[in-house]
Amino acid sequence: MSVGIDLISFYTSRYYLGLESLAQARGVDYEKYRSGLGQEKMAIPPPDEDVITMGASAAKPILDQIDVNDVELLLFATESGVDQSKAAGLFVHGLLNLSNRCRVVELKEACYSGTAALQLAAAQISQSLHSTKALVIASDVARYDLGSPGEPTQGCGAVAMLVTLNPRILALDPEAGFHAADVMDFWRPSYRDEALVDGKFSTKVYLDTAVSAWEHYVERSGRTISELYRFCYHLPFTRMGIKAHERVLQAAEGSNDTAKHASEAVSEGFAYTRDTGNSYTASLFESFACLLDNNSELAGKRIGLFSYGSGCMGEFFSGVVDPEYQKHLFSADHKAMLEDRTQLAYQEYEDIFNLKVPEDGWKYVFAQYRTGPFRFGGIEEHKRVYEAVET
Ligand code: COA
Questions:
Q1: 141 CA to middle of ligand 1, Å?
Q2: Is ligand 1 within 6 A of the CB of residue 197?
Q3: What is the CATH number of the domain that holds 14?
Q4: Are 347 and 359 in contact, with CB atoms under 8 Å apart?
Q5: Which of 28, 29, 32 to mutate to test the pocket of ligand 1 (most atoms within 8 A of CB)?
Q6: How many CA within 13 A on the CB side of residue 226?
Q7: CA distance 67 to 87
Q8: Which is the catalytic residue, given 40, 49, 72, 79?
Q9: Range of 288's domain?
Q10: Mean pLDDT in residue range 163-180
Q11: Is 109 in the active site?
């Protein structure tokens, strides 16, 4: 019996900054961002949006289609968690009215933990004696210091995936290749809101990790690269996907003439990330959702996926797309959401960036911005208050 992704839904903020505005403010040639990094916009969460509201908003279209009582596992992957103790998934559990008979936990390993959540959920569902379902949510806000090299790669987004037996989107292959190492390429001490990154080093570690995880995947599966039809990568910025696939092709084929093939194999998964920026744990799955929404010929095809989390942890895995996958996508909703966003002026972006959640324990009610079906309404006695948005 197969196990994997039964439904996949993507959500991002209703606000963005065009990178032309950022380039102008920083005195940088916009082409560096547009063609050098492969980015055009960065999604900016308003003050009443965070990883909880984005994760719940991504999951809602899925839960609207099923009996919520069937969800017995909720794994919430993030590296921008809002509490050092309480799992982000428990706020979501409340907002989505899930059953009390549900295991809920938050997972962290930089941008990798969405993949860990997916694999753990698949293992749990395979072993379950009951016909249960798991909900995996990957949700993040990518923040770097103003004016730093990472700034144009900022962004935010969430992906929710329902994991079941006989999935209607992607049946996961049992083989995967891993690579773990203790490396300081990107990190965020608990006292900082912005990540610290050794940018050039992090791209090198990412590429070396992709090759190592690919080689382990080949050892485990015995597959050759020609058995995989398309590839999705963790995308801190979309050009990284091309660079990574070129390296994997070189390792697989021993050829240096890989640029054209690399672009063909990965670029159908770029459009959403180009317009949202990095969504850390959600990024790989945002790319996969984009590929599904934009390629109608994936039925029965095997897709390769590479997940990377700084620190570092990489995993190459794969799955086969269900013949009926197009009937179960949220493509129209994804595209409508991306088209219906509000562009911020540079100063509005900087003002939002500099806002902080009050830390004095008094009661605050936040102004209402455009969000999805849920918002972060305020804070009282250090407790975050979430609410459904009236439509
Ligand atoms: N027109 C077109 N391309 C231009 C350009 C211009 N005017 N100016 C620069 N470029 C190209 C560069 O040649 C480079 O391309 P290449 O890598 O193919 O050579 C690209 O734009 C980026 O320029 P670079 O000078 O390397 O950028 P940077 O050092 O300012 O920042 C990162 C790049 C990745 C280090 C930075 O964005 C970062 O720190 N990001 C966060 C960490 C991250 O995402 N790590 C990835 C692994 S998770």
A1: 20
A2: yes
A3: 3.40.47.10
A4: no
A5: 32
A6: 1
A7: 23
A8: 79
A9: 3-388
A10: 98
A11: no
Return the pLDDT at 346. Answer: 98
Is residue 79 annotated as part of the catalytic site, yes or no?
yes
Q: Residues, the chain, total?
A: 391
| Domain count of the fold of the chain | 1
Burial 146-158 (b: 16+ CB within 10 A, else e): eeeebbbbbbbbb
CA 29 to ligand 1 center in whole angstroms: 12
Ligand 1: atom nearest CA of 308 is 48
Amino acid type, 66: I
| Strand (E) or helix (H) holding 34 | none
- Transcribe 62-108 into DSSP letters: HHTTS-GGGEEEEEEE-SS-S-SSS-HHHHHHHHTT--SS-EEEEE-
Whether 194 is catalytic: no
User: Residue 302: how many CB atoms within 10 A of its CB?
Assistant: 17
Q: Is 198 helix (H, G, I), strand (E, B) or coil?
A: coil
Q: Give the pLDDT confidence of 14-47 residue by residue, as tens digits.
A: 999 999 999 999 999 999 999 999 999 999 999 9
**What does pTM read for this prediction?**
0.97
Q: What does the angle CA 136 – CA 6 – CA 138 come to, to the nearest 5 degrees?
A: 20
